[in-house]
Design a protein that fits this description.
alpha+beta; six-stranded antiparallel sheet; 3 helices
């Protein structure tokens, strides 16, 4: 978990101004994705989710131009008409495969409840749709060490 979010605002919906700001990030290459071991929801509920049955994730996505997303309560879909992917291992493998081919933030969208949807892709046919319940948008100077 990244600890640089002092004073940052947790966003849960996208208004017109936020949409414009986020849209300016499209087309950037993703240089690092890190899944959190412990989710914020687990910490609040003081419980622990089984990684094999988990379908909601907290993760960080770092863009090449020095901005990163802290994403909370994120559901990952291989296409918009599918059920969310289940299990930390399959989701992280899917993201890893995308990353090996090169992964970009291809689109920023909003669902019917004004919640954020990020579309990651390899500038080809493979995509990952991320429906996000909450996020922070911050700047980074150094990538995290694995």
């Amino acid at each position: 978990m990244n600890g640089n979010n002092d004073g940052a605002t947790l966003h849960t919906t996208v208004d017109d101004e936020m949409y414009q700001e986020l849209s300016e990030l499209t087309g950037q290459r993703i240089v690092y994705v890190g899944f959190w071991d412990d989710s914020l929801a687990d910490a609040v509920e003081q419980s622990e989710t089984d990684p094999a049955t988990q379908n909601e994730f907290d993760l960080d996505i770092y863009l090449e131009d020095g901005v990163y997303f802290e994403l909370y309560g994120t559901y990952c879909y291989p296409d918009p008409n599918s059920e969310p992917m289940v299990g930390l291992e399959p989701v992280s493998e899917y993201v890893g495969e995308l990353g090996q081919r090169g992964m970009w933030l291809e689109e920023v969208a909003v669902d019917e409840n004004d919640a954020l949807i990020l579309v990651l892709g390899d500038q080809g046919t493979t995509k990952l749709y991320m429906a996000v319940e909450g996020w922070l948008l911050e700047e980074w100077d150094e990538l995290p060490e694995d």
